[in-house]
């Protein structure tokens, strides 16, 4: 929340529904973050449906570790969307590394130009390790790996080798349950997902986490939690509307009739197993 003693009408709406959040805008997931940064697993898949905060979780991990060297991690956030073949995988990684140039320079890390993604990653984790840190590789939109396996299985096999065999590399990827399809594709090597199983599930926010996210005693946190179930996107959406001065019942009714919101929940529903769909119904 921002504004201090500034009148409400002069403050910007603090609830973000259109993009990821980090830092003071991030709330909850404390136990999961501790398990990721303090646990023994080197390969983790955080499974969550759409709009559950998967990107925000990765960005928060990046934020926390980049701003606290005592944690011992050097984070690299990498959105895999569009990396559908080996050439694009390398191109997108180089763009990510270009964005991290100041941090690379701070560790005196020099990467070879014009190499494939696997070679770049190998050199990166080795040089980060020499600086007494562990590379924290944060892979978003990992469903793209399904397309990569079909177009360039050798690239995915190489990625498997790097993330599986590099002791000073921690890999956290996020995806919906669609990623399970990756292990169903034919492969001559070990299935890529094996070291990432079982996945960590990105659950709904608790009442306490919802209240922390709302951070405004003027808004009915308990009622918001009741109607949203602690879904982070819905909590932010309702709060954003309530912030503008609309009545609670009006906002709930309008949200229920919003076809955009209904569409993404329908897509989430389709991804559930038959038994899960029956439970929801």
Give a verbal description of the structure.
With 281 residues, the chain is of the alpha/beta class. The chain starts with 29 loop residues before the first helix and ends with a helix. α5 (117-130) packs parallel to α7, α6 crosses α7 and α8 crosses α9. The chain is built from 13 helices and 5 strands. The protein has helices at residues 30-38, 54-66, 86-99, 101-106, 117-130, 144-151, 153-165, 207-214, 221-228, 232-243, 248-256, 259-270, 274-280, and strands at residues 43-47, 73-79, 134-140, 169-175, 200-201.
Give a short summary of the structure.
The protein contains 13 helices and five strands.
Estimate what percentage of residues fall within beta strands.
5-15%
* Tertiary shape: globular
Straight-line distance between termini: 36 Å
Strands, count: 5
Radius of gyration, Cα only, in angstroms? 21 Å
Helical residues, percent:
40-55%
Widest sheet, order of strands? 2-3-4-1-5
Report the mean per-residue pLDDT as an integer: 89
Based on secondary structure, the structural category is alpha/beta
Order of helices and strands, N to C? HEHEHHHEHHEEHHHHHH
Distinct helical segment count: 13
Main sheet properties: 5 strands, parallel
Topology:
Layout (H helix, E strand, L loop, with lengths): L29 H9 L4 E5 L6 H13 L6 E7 L6 H14 L1 H6 L10 H14 L3 E7 L3 H8 L1 H13 L3 E7 L24 E2 L5 H8 L6 H8 L3 H12 L4 H9 L2 H12 L3 H7 L1
Parallel strand pairs: 1-4, 1-5, 2-3, 3-4
Helix pairs in contact: 5-7, 6-7, 8-9
């Amino acid at each position: 929340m921002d504004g201090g003693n500034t009148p409400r009408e002069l403050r910007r709406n603090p609830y973000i529904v259109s993009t990821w959040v980090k830092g003071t805008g991030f709330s909850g997931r404390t136990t999961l973050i501790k398990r990721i940064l303090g646990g023994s697993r080197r390969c983790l898949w955080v499974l969550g449906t759409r709009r559950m905060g998967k990107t925000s979780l990765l960005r928060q991990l990046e934020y926390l570790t980049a701003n606290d060297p005592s944690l011992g991690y050097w984070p690299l956030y990498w959105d895999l969307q569009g990396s559908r073949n080996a050439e694009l995988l390398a191109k997108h990684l180089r763009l990510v590394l270009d964005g991290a140039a100041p941090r690379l320079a701070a560790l005196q890390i020099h990467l070879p130009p014009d190499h494939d993604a696997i070679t770049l990653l190998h050199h990166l984790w080795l040089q980060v390790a020499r600086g007494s840190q562990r590379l924290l590789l944060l892979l978003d939109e990992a469903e793209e790996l399904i397309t990569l396996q079909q177009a360039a299985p050798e690239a995915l096999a190489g990625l498997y080798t790097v993330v599986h065999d590099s002791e000073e590399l921690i890999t956290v990827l996020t995806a919906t349950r669609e990623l399970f399809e990756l292990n169903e594709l034919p492969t001559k090597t070990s299935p890529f997902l094996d070291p990432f199983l079982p996945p960590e599930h990105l659950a709904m926010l608790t009442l306490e986490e919802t209240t922390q996210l709302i951070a405004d005693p003027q808004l009915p946190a308990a009622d918001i939690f009741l109607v949203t179930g602690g879904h982070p996107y819905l909590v932010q959406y309702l709060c954003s509307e309530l912030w503008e001065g609309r009545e609670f019942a009006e906002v709930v009714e309008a949200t229920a009739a919003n076809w955009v919101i209904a569409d993404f929940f329908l897509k989430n529903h389709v991804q559930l197993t038959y038994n899960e769909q029956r439970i929801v119904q």
